[in-house]
Request: fold
Amino acid sequence: EMETATSTTTYGSPGRLQNHPGIAKAVMKATVSVGVPTLQTPPAYNITSIGDTALGRLTVTIATDFSSAQWCCISDIESLQANTSNYVVGIENGSQAAGSVILTCFLITDVNSAAADPIAWHMTGFGDQV
Reply:
């Protein structure tokens, strides 16, 4: 009943709320200092580890996998710039799997773009888990 989310009369116990499709299944914040990301706990939830794959690139490994790679990953950053619209953050093409995702960050200027580490990475995942 929790996974189908159709009942309006059944109430879920705290131990089963994670089965509801509208509840975040993975949450993390990783601060970056001198190019090194550090997972913050809290707010990390269901995250096994993070990896500094390259400049502007962070690999997030999820503890309890999603049932497939078809889960909703929402990512964002904190930046030094007052105008955060100069940054583009997203999911690296083809990197989203049931148990991991690679996030990327680029600083966009008037003439080009370059990979850049943010002050902090944020990621939330929604979907069905194994």
